[in-house]
């Protein structure tokens, strides 16, 4: 993807899963990367691996996007040449718990709202003005979820946060309609990453049962979709992509082979 060579791409939540897969895909295309994640050690390890493999430039640092002051400081402290960001991939996000709304843990709610919604807003608010100032053909790619389209039992708050991602993307696209900046919302269905491990607070057995009997998407599948949107000609805006495994129709309608669902 020659058109992405030497672009500067900022990816949040880049230490694992979809964020890491996107980082590798952009690195392979010759882009230079700014990578952040809550785990400093993990994101720096990803950066070292990609630098060695693809001989690109990478800036990496630990960042919890829930903290507005830390986000502002991290972006403000970027060297001038790294402020010429072409593509922002708002990937940092999480789900916590699967209880009924009236039994939910309010700390879990705070984590989801502060990361999935406010963190995305904080990064977007800081980086889009750079794109406008530098007059680049910019691109904001927000990783949402099919949960933002179809609610499911036990997921009310998570689904609400991903609905917010969809409508923030739509609204931002309207705000930028007279600018050379595209906005894409990618809405995956079931993707096997550490997502469910986080949702179930580290219970790997419970997390594994989510994907039993179905071939889920991989992080690399979603990275392929991100790259498709990012590599489209500048006059082409992929507004929204919803992608699921073949045996998933909505967030709650899934066919699992040889699995007793009752």
Structure in words:
- With 262 residues, the chain is an alpha/beta fold.
- The chain has one domain: Rossmann fold (3-Layer(aba) Sandwich).
- Helix content is 41%, strand content 14%.
- The chain has helices spanning 17-28, 40-54, 68-76, 106-134, 156-175, 195-199, 204-209, 219-230, and strands at 8-11, 32-37, 58-62, 87-90, 138-143, 181-188, 240-243.
- Strands 3-2-1-4-5-6-7 form a 7-stranded parallel beta sheet, sandwiched between helices.
- Helix 1 packs parallel to helix 2 (40-54) and helix 1 (17-28) packs across helix 8.
- It starts with 7 loop residues before the first strand and ends in a 19-residue tail after the last strand.
**Structure classification:** alpha/beta
Distance between the termini: 47 Å
The Rg value, from CA coordinates, equals 18 Å
The first-level CATH class is given as Alpha Beta
In CATH, the architecture is 3-Layer(aba) Sandwich
| Overall strand count | 7
Count of runs of 4 or more consecutive helical residues = 8
> How many domains?
1
CATH T-level topology: Rossmann fold
Rounded average pLDDT: 94
CATH superfamily: NAD(P)-binding Rossmann-like Domain
| Low-pLDDT segments | none
Shape: globular
How does the major sheet shape up? 7 strands, parallel
β-sheet strand percentage: 5-15%
């Amino acid at each position: 993807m020659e058109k992405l060579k030497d672009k500067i791409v900022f990816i949040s939540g880049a230490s694992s899963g979809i964020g890491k897969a996107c980082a590798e895909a952009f690195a392979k295309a010759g882009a230079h990367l700014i990578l952040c994640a809550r785990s400093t050690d993990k994101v720096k390890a990803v950066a070292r691996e990609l630098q060695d493999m693809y001989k690109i430039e990478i800036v990496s640092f630990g960042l919890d996007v829930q903290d507005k002051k830390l986000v502002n400081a991290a972006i403000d402290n970027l060297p001038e040449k790294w402020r010429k960001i072409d593509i922002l991939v708002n990937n940092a996000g999480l789900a916590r718990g699967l209880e009924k709304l009236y039994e939910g843990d309010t700390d879990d709610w705070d984590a989801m709202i502060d990361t999935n919604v406010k963190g995305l807003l904080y990064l977007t608010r800081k980086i889009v003005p750079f794109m406008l100032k530098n007059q680049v053909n910019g691109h904001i790619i927000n990783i949402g979820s099919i949960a933002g389209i179809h609610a499911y039992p036990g997921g009310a708050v998570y689904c609400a946060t991903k609905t917010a991602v969809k409508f923030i993307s739509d609204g931002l696209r309207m705000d930028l309609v007279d600018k050379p900046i595209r906005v894409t919302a990618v809405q995956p269905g079931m993707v096997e990453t550490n997502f469910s491990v986080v949702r179930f607070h580290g219970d790997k057995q419970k997390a594994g049962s989510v994907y039993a009997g179905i071939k889920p998407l991989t992080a690399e599948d979603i990275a392929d979709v991100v790259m498709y949107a990012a590599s489209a000609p500048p006059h082409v805006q992929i507004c929204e992509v919803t992608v699921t495994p073949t045996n998933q129709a909505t967030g709650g309608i899934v066919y699992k082979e040889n699995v007793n669902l009752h």
